[in-house]
TrEMBL record:
Pfam families: DMT_YdcZ. PANTHER family: INNER MEMBRANE PROTEIN YDCZ (PTHR34821). InterPro entries: YdcZ. It comes from Aeromicrobium marinum DSM 15272. This is Uncharacterized protein.
Length: 318
């Protein structure tokens, strides 16, 4: 297992969270530039995951360390140390990236991320309690409950603020989509931790992008049965960085989840996600950030800080 120095773990997990927020922003704008409707969001997701797959494939198959990582995973499958269903974490990633393209352009990156983090908190509670993570079963504790309660409260406050600019049904529906994506990503981190413990983070990331890209291609094909349009791909190169951001947080998560557990990883990523998402909207001249919006983000981060303070005997680096 790859172990990190104590001083490096938390900053890396915060960076992973920031990468999630930046990817959400990029993919949301990319979908708006591509066209309208479900097919625009689906194509944006395929572009994001496909570009990530291309980059990580070059690394895995072009470097000796990557080829060795792939060989270890194949051997682990042959020996039964990893099971085929545990390779499907990329389905959660596909759901998340697709939800970015569908929801961010409507409800904004900050509400999307706060709803997503609420799903992460609830999902991490369930995943650790059921023992799906690489560290085995970890029962619910005050720290875990506090993080989930504060995150859900943050969603409710931010959603109430957002309703003033969008319909109730649309806001609630898209926030629920993001919440589901967060819960699914908690399971993704757990499965990736298991795969990474056998094959390493490089092949784990490549596997995620391969599985996710295949799923998104199916989603794109289905999306053409729904009203919408595709105007073409934009020329701005920064809109194609979604795959790079995805590689960043998947690699970091695959390494750190083995050492810190699903919940601690989730808490640190929540802080990085929410702070970055709020900064993105504050710095965007086209977005009006209300007081309630800031309060909602603050609640999510406060929950992280309180939960970390309450967990001295909860989860320690392994």
């Amino acid at each position: 297992m790859t172990r990190l120095p104590a001083a490096a773990g938390v900053p890396l997990m915060l960076i992973a969270g920031a990468a999630v927020a930046l990817q959400s922003r990029v993919n949301g704008v990319l979908a708006q530039e591509i066209g309208e409707g479900l097919r625009a969001g689906a194509l944006a997701a395929v572009v994001s995951f496909g570009s990530g797959l291309a980059v990580i494939s070059l690394v895995v198959f072009g470097l000796p360390a990557g080829r060795a990582s792939s060989a270890r995973l194949r051997e682990g499958l042959r020996q039964g140390r990893i099971r085929w269903p545990e390779l499907l974490g990329g389905l959660s990633g596909a759901y998340f990236v697709a939800s970015q393209g569908i929801a961010v352009g409507v409800i904004g990156v900050a509400l999307f991320i706060v709803a997503f983090t609420a799903g992460q908190s609830l999902g991490s509670l369930a995943v650790d309690h059921l023992g799906y993570g690489p560290g085995g079963r970890q029962h619910a504790s005050p720290a875990r409950v506090v993080a989930a309660v504060f995150a859900v409260a943050g969603v409710l406050v931010k959603a109430f603020d957002q309703i003033s600019t969008a319909s109730v049904a649309v806001t609630v529906g898209l926030a629920a989509l993001a919440l589901g994506a967060g819960a699914a990503q908690a399971l993704q981190h757990a499965l990736n931790g298991r795969v990474s413990a056998v094959g390493g983070p490089l092949v784990t990331t490549a596997n995620n992008f391969a599985v996710g890209t295949l799923a998104l291609l199916v989603f794109l094909a289905v999306s053409f049965g729904v009203d919408g349009r595709i105007d073409g791909l934009p020329a701005s190169p920064e809109l194609y960085l979604g795959g790079v951001f995805g590689i960043t947080f998947i690699v970091i998560a695959a390494i750190t989840v083995q050492q810190y557990g699903v919940l601690v990883l989730g808490l640190c990523m929540i802080a990085g996600q929410v702070v970055t998402a709020e900064l993105v909207e504050i710095l965007d001249p086209d977005v009006e950030v209300g007081v309630l919006g800031l309060v909602g983000g603050g609640l999510a981060v406060t929950g992280v800080l309180v939960a970390l303070a309450l967990r001295p005997r909860d989860v320690t680096p392994r």
